[in-house]
Automatic annotation (TrEMBL), chain A:
<keyword id="KW-0812">Transmembrane</keyword>
<dbReference type="InterPro" id="IPR001851">
    <property type="entry name" value="ABC_transp_permease"/>
</dbReference>
<dbReference type="GO" id="GO:0005886">
    <property type="term" value="C:plasma membrane"/>
</dbReference>
<keyword id="KW-1133">Transmembrane helix</keyword>
<keyword id="KW-0997">Cell inner membrane</keyword>
<keyword id="KW-1003">Cell membrane</keyword>
<feature type="transmembrane region" description="Helical">
    <location>
        <begin position="42"/>
        <end position="63"/>
    </location>
</feature>
<comment type="function">
    <text>Part of the binding-protein-dependent transport system for D-xylose. Probably responsible for the translocation of the substrate across the membrane.</text>
</comment>
<dbReference type="GO" id="GO:0022857">
    <property type="term" value="F:transmembrane transporter activity"/>
</dbReference>
UniProtKB/TrEMBL annotation, chain B:
<dbReference type="GO" id="GO:0016887">
    <property type="term" value="F:ATP hydrolysis activity"/>
</dbReference>
<keyword id="KW-0067">ATP-binding</keyword>
<dbReference type="InterPro" id="IPR050107">
    <property type="entry name" value="ABC_carbohydrate_import_ATPase"/>
</dbReference>
<keyword id="KW-0472">Membrane</keyword>
<dbReference type="InterPro" id="IPR053466">
    <property type="entry name" value="L-arabinose_ABC_transporter"/>
</dbReference>
<dbReference type="InterPro" id="IPR003593">
    <property type="entry name" value="AAA+_ATPase"/>
</dbReference>
<keyword id="KW-1003">Cell membrane</keyword>
<feature type="domain" description="ABC transporter">
    <location>
        <begin position="264"/>
        <end position="508"/>
    </location>
</feature>
<keyword id="KW-0813">Transport</keyword>
Length: 388, 521
């Protein structure tokens, strides 16, 4: 019994947020009398939160390096506006417009990264200025008006679904095939990793728990896809998100640049004296944030089918909250992409669930605030406990 | 026999999984200087934290008697009200406040919450005179040196009407002359009737000032030595601390010195902020293969600045001069170029500049060497684990596994991690800045052995150290620096503490006074 409680304690930090997410899902599933996990609602949930999750990935990188970016909402709005001008007013091809917009996002990121990394102005100030600047620019280029509608091809980013290559029954079979394949790959990787860790005598989950974890993940993943499949299948945006999550997780965990980002956030001076070009790392993290802000802006514009001056308002706060709920440290050096995604989903599910049960925006805001605070307090509490 | 001021009886303190103190007894007599010795992790700091109430009553077992009264401190405030004041190794001064404000911090001279500034200044002046510090009370702490800051800490303690002053490693960050000053001050305070407990690794200092010495090992009291009754020598103390005779503190090495591998020629460096202040003045030096070269000097002589400016221009501006490796001129403009040229630098302050404390041993060791263990920018985790594990065993890094966070390691083991990281980089020239500061005797020996091994492998080693016995003990050749210049070069045979001291204080007089003034302003 003692070993079990110790086990729970040791893994609480790692899996705590995922468990919390599952509990929140369960809670709202009950409170909404089953509406939350209805196929249509799940699809909506993904579409509603995709642009925040994209921002959260970039934001957690920024936070790991020990900075913050307050400008992402304004940048997203500005890019949305530019994309509308390119596609709607200038009739540019959607693909070309998207590429141009992402490049512009990179440029904006470079602009802010330059001030933060090389001139050493605190990111809070640089991006606060950016928040005002790009909001202003958005209003200027849109002349205070909304621009709509976007071409259909472009809207497929947010409104489209992966086509079913296996005929069109009531269930989207291709989605299920993808899901089963992915869960097999996942199980294979986990088993391989565990073997390796055992070889070096690392602490691993006991076999029973490990199997439970694999089964749990596979069930959740396939069950989730099954629900989607009974509606229209996997949304395009989910594919984009999946690629981003896997790609960025891989980069942060297994690649040299990821290690450098953690090192710069953990101790910039020591990193510098270890041969890491700390300024360059910081600069590129902001460029990356710019690109992802642009992507987020495009997704939002495609979903709304309009570019508006008010787009992206307060996105930055949701993205920052997601990163912190997901275990990132305000002092830098700590955080994970997957954590930020889970944090974003916690916020997203709560938004969605509370809206369904008819809670007003006033209450929603307050409750979200308390969740953010308690998630971080839980983290701090856990840390103190393990260090004393 | 003098009265007993403090008695700690059968103190036992447990942390989850470890017994930090086991039935420790300590007796301190009124008016003496009592030294507490022991290796890192022996329990000295824990014992003092129990005494001062950092660990409140109830979290340990045993009795504390102060002036014959039993004490049950719940926090530091309570122990301070009885006149027990502890000065920690990391000074608790606020850099942005003045000397006066710091001295009366938490103890403000006030009437109904309004601070009486004239009283503060008058009393500060009085206290500063007592500790022999000639500074104005309204100078900011960040503008005075570490030595003077230490004096301010003591003045702060005096302001609290201290009866028992506890100093944790007070001279660890001080140079020889500042240390000397501080020890004299302790003797002076003793004459005024203030009892003190001093924790120190520097055994020569202890044998100089202490009236009795209590030795801790593995959380237990080993013995209390008293001059007169017991023979007190450094060897005797070391024997108590490590539980065996450490016959030679510096491991033997047969120097096999080869050709010159590294040349620094006419090296000049200016202060990073003050454009016209020269920090390194026309320094030339060379290192041969298999040679351990020392740089001695007082604090502020420019030793660290020299090493850092060589290491990829990590310090200073307007750097001029030539670097030659194997006789060929090389360009080293940044740290990664330095690493590529086979130059490595183990920093002086391992916590701030050497390690990423929130990361584990593995990540720290491989950080400068990620290219070595990755293919196409993807880290080969197996290779990383094997490499890190290899160094953990080779250097005997005491830890639960390579996944242990470096912030939880003791000083000696942290230093071994930093050494591993640079050994893995396979440098030809290794510069070590105060490699054994704040490390216990046993770990020091291990570090010296590693240095010897590296030298034997034909690497060129440069050691910066403020401890002259260390420099004399491990180096083949010694450069002495003073005020940014090299003032002497000595071979092992001709070097003595006295000759080095002479070179260290070589250019004194008017110019130095100017500099000193510039420093304090």
């Amino acid at each position: 019994m003692q070993t079990l409680s110790k086990l729970i304690q040791n893994n609480l930090k790692q899996y705590g947020m995922i468990i919390a997410l599952l509990l929140i899902v369960l809670l709202f599933q009950i409170l909404t009398a089953g509406i939350l996990l209805k196929p249509l609602n799940i699809t909506n949930l993904i579409l509603q939160n995709s642009y925040i999750l994209v921002l959260a990935i970039g934001m957690v990188l920024v936070i790991i390096t020990g900075h913050i970016d307050l400008s992402v909402g304004s940048v997203a709005a500005f890019i949305g506006a530019i994309s509308a001008i390119l596609m709607v007013e200038l009739n540019m091809h959607p693909f070309l417009s998207v590429v141009l917009c992402l490049l512009l996002g990179a440029l904006i990121g470079a602009w802010q990264g330059f001030w933060v990394a090389y001139i050493k102005i605190p990111a809070f100030i640089v991006t606060l200025a950016g928040m005002l600047l790009f909001r202003g620019l958005t209003m200027i280029v849109l002349e205070g008006q909304s621009i709509a509608p976007f071409p259909t091809d472009f809207r497929q980013i947010s409104a489209g679904f992966v086509p079913d290559f296996f005929g069109s029954g009531s269930i989207h079979i291709f989605s299920l095939v993808i899901s089963v394949a992915l869960s097999l790959i996942f199980v294979y990787k986990e088993v391989k990793d565990r073997k390796n860790q055992l070889k070096y005598h690392f602490n691993v989950l006991p076999k029973s728990l490990f199997i439970a974890k694999l089964v749990g993940v596979a069930v959740v993943m396939n069950g989730f896809t099954y629900i989607l499949a009974t509606y229209k299948g996997i949304p395009n945006i989910l594919v984009i998100l999946f690629v981003l999550i896997v790609g960025y997780s891989f980069m942060m965990k297994k690649m040299v640049v990821g290690r450098h980002i953690y090192a710069v956030g953990g101790n910039e001076k020591a990193a510098g004296l270890s041969g890491i070009k700390t300024k360059r790392v910081t600069f590129w993290v902001f460029v990356n944030m710019g690109i992802l802000s642009a992507l987020s802006g495009l997704i939002f514009a495609a979903r709304l089918n309009a570019a508006t001056p008010k787009a992206g308002n307060l996105f930055e706060l949701d993205a920052i909250a997601a990163a912190f709920i997901g275990g990132a440290s305000a002092y830098g050096g700590v955080g994970t992409v997957i954590g930020a995604i889970v944090g974003g989903l916690v916020m997203g599910v709560m938004n969605n669930g509370m809206s369904i049960i008819g809670l007003g925006v006033d209450w929603q805001q307050g409750i979200k605030g308390l969740v953010l605070l308690s998630a971080v307090a839980f983290d701090v509490f856990n840390k103190n406990k393990s260090s004393s | 026999m003098a009265d007993i001021l403090l008695e700690m009886k059968k103190i036992t303190k447990e942390f989850p999984g470890v017994k930090a103190l086991k039935d420790v007894n300590l007796q301190v007599k009124e008016g003496e200087i009592h030294a507490l010795c022991g290796e890192n992790g022996a329990g000295k700091s824990t014992l003092m934290k129990v005494l001062s109430g950092v660990y409140p009553y109830g979290s340990y077992t045993g009795d504390i008697l102060f002036q014959g009264q039993e004490c049950q401190f719940k926090d530091i405030k309570q122990s301070e009200s009885l006149g027990i004041v502890i000065i920690h190794q990391e000074l608790a001064l606020i850099p942005e406040l003045t000397i006066g404000e710091n001295i009366f911090l938490g103890n403000e001279q006030s009437k109904k919450g309004v601070i009486d500034w004239s009283q503060t200044v008058i009393q500060t002046k009085d206290l500063l005179k007592k500790v022999g510090l000639e500074e104005s009370p309204d100078i900011l702490i960040k503008h005075i040196g570490v030595g003077k800051q230490q004096l301010v800490e003591i003045a702060k303690a005096l302001a609290k009407e201290v009866k028992l002053l506890i100093l944790d490693e007070p001279t660890a960050a001080l140079n020889e002359s500042d240390s000397e000053n501080l020890l004299n001050l302790l003797l002076e305070l003793k004459r005024q009737g203030i009892t003190s407990i001093i924790i120190s690794h520097k055994l020569n200092e202890i044998s100089k000032v202490a009236d009795s010495i209590t030795i801790l090992r593995d959380g237990q009291t080993i013995e209390t030595l008293e001059p007169g009754k017991d023979e007190i020598t450094e060897d005797r103390i070391i024997k108590g601390m490590v539980g065996r005779n450490l016959s030679n503190r510096y491991p033997q090495r047969d120097s096999k010195i080869g050709e010159t591998i590294f040349d620094i020629i006419n090296w000049n460096v200016y202060h990073p902020l003050q454009q016209d202040r020269k920090i390194i003045d026309n320094v030339s030096l060379h290192i041969k293969k298999g040679e351990v070269v020392g740089i001695a000097g007082l604090m502020g002589a420019g030793r660290t600045e020299l090493a850092m400016s060589i290491f990829g221009q990590s310090y200073g501006q307007k750097i001029t001069g030539k670097i030659k490796k194997d006789g060929k001129e090389v360009e080293i403009k940044n740290v990664s170029q330095a690493i590529k040229q086979g130059v490595a630098y183990v920093t002086e302050d391992r916590k701030t500049y050497g390690l990423i404390l929130i990361d584990d041993i593995k990540a720290n060791i491989t950080l400068p060497n990620l290219q070595q263990i990755s293919q196409r920018s993807i880290i080969n985790e197996q290779e990383e684990i094997i490499t890190a594990e290899n160094y953990r065993t080779k250097l005997n890094i005491k830890s639960s596994s390579i996944l242990q966070k470096t912030e939880n390691l003791s000083g000696g083991n942290q230093q071994k991690v930093v050494l591993s990281k640079w050994m893995l980089a396979q440098p030809d020239i290794l510069m070590l800045d105060e490699p054994t500061r704040g490390i216990d005797v046993g770990a020091k020996y291990e570090i010296y052995s590693i240095i010897n091994e590296l030298a034997q492998d034909g690497k060129g080693i440069l050691v910066i150290s403020s401890e002259l016995p260390e420099i004399l003990g491990i180096c083949d050749r010694i450069y002495v620096m003073s005020e940014g210049k090299i003032t002497g070069e000595l071979n092992r045979e001709e070097a003595t503490q006295e000759t080095i001291m002479e070179y260290m204080t070589n250019i004194r007089g008017e110019k130095h006074a100017d500099l000193e003034q510039a420093y304090t302003k």
